[in-house]
Give the backbone structure.
Amino acid sequence: MPIEEIKRYSKRKKSDSLNTFIIFCKSNEPISLPHELRTFMNDFHEDLEVVKEIRDSIIHQGKEPLIRFQNNEAYFRIPVSPPYGEKNRLPDILDMGNTDYPLKIYMKELTDRLFQFTENLGLILYNYLKEKGKEELVLTAIAGLCIEEFNNFLGYK
């Protein structure tokens, strides 16, 4: 974006918020962001709402997840009505229609969506910079003591 647009954008309330940026991309304001980026951010809005609902339920509204174990598997929900309502306030991202979601599978799905988002965003930005003749590719990787267990959790070989 030209420096003038960056200055105008940075004056927005919560300009460092991903949600603010998505709303900015949805606006009809004439901005110089690539169309592909704007479309991608608009499409990502639903996934962001899932993460926000989980965060808001626990952090901002003080809701406590209920976890139960069955056949050595953890299932969880955040009840809509306290303390132990049957209806789950969490989005049904697994399309299970259940009141309790398998914790590991639910977290894996959220993690996969996050990785897909960052990978697709990176490709959009790289292609834009390449088109402008300004590309510089720096590959990164997640590393650490627990990476093998993390990869196993995600189902990667």
